Give the backbone structure.
Amino acid sequence: MLSKIKSLAETLAPRLIEIRRHLHAHPELSGQEHQTAAYVAGVLSSCGLRVREAVGKVGVVGELGGGSDPRLLAIRTDMDALPIQERTTLDYASRQSGVMHACGHDVHTTVGLGTAMVLAQLGEPLPGRVRFLFQPAEELAQGANWMVQDGVMDEVSAILSLHVYPSILAGKVGIRYGALTAAADDLEIVIIGESGHGARPHEAVDAIWIAAQVITTLQQAISRTQNPLRPVVLSIGKIEGGRAPNVIADRVTLLGTVRSLHPETREQLPDWIQQIVTGICQSYGASFEVNYRRGVPSVQNDLALTQILESAVAEAWGSDCIQMLLEPSLGAEDFSVYLDHAPGSMFRLGVGHLDKPNYPLHHPQFNVDESAILTGVVTMATAAYKYWQQQSSAHH
Ligand code: NI
């Protein structure tokens, strides 16, 4: 089966590169992936998949197979681009001013389509069912929620996904057990003091000074009260407050992001922040509001499914092509939203060039080595097959 998957994917490779270049030239922003979705639906239908459109607002779902194995495997890719002006010199650079596939979601979509094409053309019925999820709006961390609300995880027993990674060379695949990305939550703290003359601070409650205490104490408290082996990053990215140089500010708003890797740590963060802010504000007579808004959870790769991915890479490409990822990322990824409904694993697809500079994700000159598309498709299709094999043997 592996050699059949590989030869089919090799035959399809030139077509897949065409598809990727088309997507790259026509990027669309999060939630507006209308042309991309129509294109994806067209390719899936032409391969004989059962296709549903406008799932999760602009998403597309394609389904294939129906063998005796009751388990349903989902394969998720994302389709949105970023508000970045492309600065590459590629023939197929973005034709949409100010919009660019700078996070490689064009490659993800292509790998999803390629995997569907390969599995559809194998010439024999699949052991089980596979559902391809093409989601919108990953960059806003909303698309996965939209898809789940529309029921795409109903009956799903496992889910796989990928993200490109420019610091891994094309031809290699990054595998990680356990935490892959961080939980990303939003924090808003409003400090309400009392205005007064800048010359007479004792008659006022200075919200700016208290805000400074809050920021400093939060940073220090991370290092003194949080387990250093369970990282927490809290960054205040925006401060607003004050009226004039000689007027004591009565109101300051702090906006920030809170990143963590361990679900139990994350659980405690809202109360922990609330306590610190309460302590400081009460000492100095200010009132306050703390709004902690949960964003996406951390991606926790499932052990058994990560083993399947690892062995798929080893069998398809040799164990030299596996790059074990020693550290998680504190970036966020809304794949985690699906993992509340079924176990899953996401791999990092190397797209780095051997002989050219590799710009990071979200950079205006970001560019991939397209040979990685074949690596991604064969890895995903092989992993799908291995999933049904291992599951069914485990159940006999
Ligand atoms: Ni991305």
